[in-house]
């Protein structure tokens, strides 16, 4: 039984990979770049996580057309990556329009070719930045798309094992499963030391603080 895991290099996808490793016989890891600011650092994290689990079946793909489309501070240098406001109900500038649908489409194509029966993605709904493509209803809808758009004998299930967890719960789950959190990268701005102030850094730091655990990566200041 083979599962594909979408691994960005961040903490959520790393913990999802750890869960998938415990639930499946074989893993295939998929990393997708999209012209983001920290593309090289995230790819390094992906490869180090794959090495940690001894996964040789890995695919490093690119959908850089999302950077050409723009509309996100992660892909457009003219749009500033804003400091986090964890109380805001607005969708932040870091949202990449419909990114996860593009990624799931690639994962589905690969799954159908290699005979994978599931696709794991580390989406988080409750304790996230409010991205619309991280909501459970999005994945329920995309599951119907997979069912309708693949061969009649194809069976591929989208799995979102941490979608209802808070960041603190994700940290605890990662520690429980010995996930290599020290290899992960979450910062939207920097590729050397994490900034600590973007949405992703702020959510991560709050998660570690609430879990009562020290974050193993280094931050500026």
Q: Could you explain the architecture of this structure?
A:
It is a single chain. With 221 residues, the protein is α/β, with parallel strands linked by helices. The chain has one domain: Rossmann fold (3-Layer(aba) Sandwich), CATH 3.40.50.620. The chain is 38% helix and 11% strand. The protein has seven helices and five strands; from the N terminus they run βαβαβααβαβαα. Strands 3-2-1-4-5 form a five-stranded parallel β-sheet, with helices on both faces. α5 links the parallel β4 and β5. The protein is globular.
Give a topology summary.
Elements: E1 2-6, H1 11-23, E2 26-33, H2 39-52, E3 58-62, H3 65-69, H4 99-114, E4 118-120, H5 136-149, E5 157-159, H6 167-176, H7 199-211
Parallel strand pairs: 1-2, 1-4, 2-3, 4-5
Helix pairs in contact: 1-6, 6-7
Write a concise synopsis of the structure shown.
Helix content is 38%, strand content 11%. By secondary structure, the chain is of the alpha/beta class.
Helix content: 25-40%
How would you name the CATH homologous superfamily? HUPs
User: Could you tell me the radius of gyration in angstroms?
Assistant: 16 Å
Return residue spans where pLDDT drops below 50 for at least 5 consecutive residues. Answer: none
List the main descriptive attributes of the protein structure presented here.
5 strands; 7 helices; about 220 residues; Rossmann fold; alpha/beta; single chain; 5-stranded parallel sheet
């Amino acid at each position: 039984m083979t599962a594909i895991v979408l691994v960005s290099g961040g903490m959520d996808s790393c913990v999802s990979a750890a869960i998938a490793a415990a639930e499946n016989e074989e893993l295939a890891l998929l990393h997708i770049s999209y012209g983001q600011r920290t593309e090289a650092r995230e790819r390094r994290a992906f490869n180090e996580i794959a090495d940690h689990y001894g996964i040789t079946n890995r695919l490093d793909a690119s959908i850089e057309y999302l950077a050409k489309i723009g509309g996100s501070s992660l892909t457009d240098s003219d749009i500033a990556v804003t400091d986090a406001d964890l109380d805001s109900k607005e969708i932040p500038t870091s949202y990449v329009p419909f990114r996860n649908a593009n990624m799931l489409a690639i994962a589905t194509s690969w799954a159908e070719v290699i005979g994978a029966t599931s696709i794991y993605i580390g989406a988080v709904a409750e304790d996230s930045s409010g991205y619309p493509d991280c909501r459970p209803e999005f994945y329920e809808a995309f599951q119907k798309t997979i069912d309708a758009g693949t061969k009649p004998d194809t069976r591929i299930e989208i799995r979102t094992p941490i979608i209802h967890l808070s960041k603190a719960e994700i940290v605890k789950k990662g520690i429980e499963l010995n996930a290599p959190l020290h290899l992960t990268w979450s910062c939207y701005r920097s590729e050397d030391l994490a900034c600590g102030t973007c949405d992703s850094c702020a959510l991560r730091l709050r998660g570690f603080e609430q879990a009562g655990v020290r974050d193993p990566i280094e931050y500026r200041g």
